[in-house]
Amino acid sequence: MNQLEQQIKDFVDRDFDALVSLRREFHRHPELGREEHWTAARIEEELGKLDLPHHRCAETGVVAYVDGKSEGPAPLTADGRSRCMALRADIDALPLTELRETAYTSNIPGRMHACGHDVHLTSLLGTARALQAHRDLFAGRVILIFQPSEENGFGGRRMVEEGAVNGATRCFGFHIAPELKCGTLGLMEGANNASVDWFRMTIRGEGTHAAYPHQGADALYMAAQVVVAAQALVTRLNDPAQPLLLGFGRLEAGTTYNVVADKAVLEGTIRALDPAVRKDVIRRLEQLLQDTVTLYGGTASVEWDVNGEMLINTAEAVREARKVAVSLFGEDCLAVRKPALIGDDMSEYIDAVTGCYAFIGTQDPERPETAHPLHHACLDVDEEVFRVSVPMMTAYTLEYMRGEV
Ligand SMILES: [Zn+2]
Ligand SMILES: [Zn+2]
């Protein structure tokens, strides 16, 4: 560990209790995507205390800037650009009722920070404080992105479209990882998170008496066939060594027990870690749907939307971040975290700017609630994570801006 890193760690140790109480405050006030009004205002209040310029972005998002005060010539990137780090945290919660009673249980029934975004945004506020306290040590601008609406794939795209990362030459962000012990980090090159495609199929048949099915066209039956047959696209037509998921989450059909359904609606998702696999399964699913409904006398249409692109960590940024992590926390801090078929729209930033995304462990083996998966109604975190997340973001940023990594 170098002297600067020690200084940052000491700063975070002094700020630790304040970070814990800030996180608990956010945890008590979870808000869904595009409704983060209280959260955004509270973030702005904290940024105001630091005198950091900031503005709203993507409705309920906030972008802030930390400007370095160092006189010296700022080191440029290899292609001659001014260095500019963009750090991103998502701020939205989930439509879930928290099932554990603690001093900081969600105050809002049916809403919970069950994906750790309270930890992400508190870490970024902690990083803002640490960077502002060390701004004599760098030149140039750091962008802090408090992104709304990650869970429904809206925020990242909108932040990038509205220019949040304009001028950035590097980006970094992280997600909590309950499967990793607190004190460890997963930092992997390449595909980390899957593409997330949403689809809705509408099948049209013809209603008739249940006793005369041959005189109608049973949309419910066609939908059921599609659900069952679609799994073979994964198990029979895809290379088993290639991760792929095809899931249906909603099926709606029919009005009563003795009428053949004239309409069925199916909603689902496709997750992949490879663009060719993704393209193939989309084509095959469309074909399966059309072949099935044609056989049974119906018609069908599909709507598609992309809720998130694959998150592919850039090798260069992973190398830099690993170097900083090992220097801060020692060789043993690097954990193996397998790619997952959950999505994360941090991909939008990494598609626009060279960057990477880390998984930071939040599990305390003594506390089983910290080992629940993301989106679990009993999930909690080991708050010691702030001694990892904030130094990691701060040190990587300072060392990048100073041209030391
Ligand atoms: Zn989530
Ligand atoms: Zn999340």
Care to give the gist of this entry?
34% of the residues lie in helices and 24% in strands. With 405 residues, it is α/β, with parallel strands linked by helices.
Task: Furnish the topology, listing elements before pairings.
Blueprint: H1 3-28, H2 37-49, E1 54-57, E2 61-67, E3 85-90, H3 117-133, E4 141-147, H4 155-161, E5 170-181, E6 185-186, E7 190-193, E8 195-204, H5 219-235, E9 244-253, E10 263-272, H6 275-295, E11 299-308, E12 311-313, H7 315-329, E13 334-335, H8 347-352, E14 355-363, H9 386-401
Parallel strand pairs: 3-4, 3-5, 5-14, 6-13
Antiparallel strand pairs: 1-2, 2-4, 6-14, 7-12, 8-10, 8-11, 9-10
Helix pairs in contact: 1-3, 1-9, 3-9, 5-6, 7-9
What oligomerization state is this entry in? single chain
**Sequence of strands across the biggest β-sheet:** 1-2-4-3-5-14-6-13
What is the correct CATH architecture of the largest domain? 3-Layer(aba) Sandwich
Average pLDDT level? 97
CATH topology of the largest domain: Aminopeptidase
* Number of distinct helices: 9
Bound ligands: zinc ion
Termini, distance in Å?
Answer: 14 Å
**CA radius of gyration:** 24 Å
Which percent bin holds the helix content? 25-40%
Number of strands: 14
Rough outline: elongated
Number of domains: 2
In CATH's first tier, which class of the largest domain applies? Alpha Beta
- Strand % is 15-25%
Which sheet architecture does the biggest sheet show?
8 strands, mixed
N to C succession of SSEs: HHEEEHEHEEEEHEEHEEHEHEH
Assigned CATH superfamily of the largest domain: Zn peptidases
Provide the structure class: alpha/beta
Poorly predicted runs are none
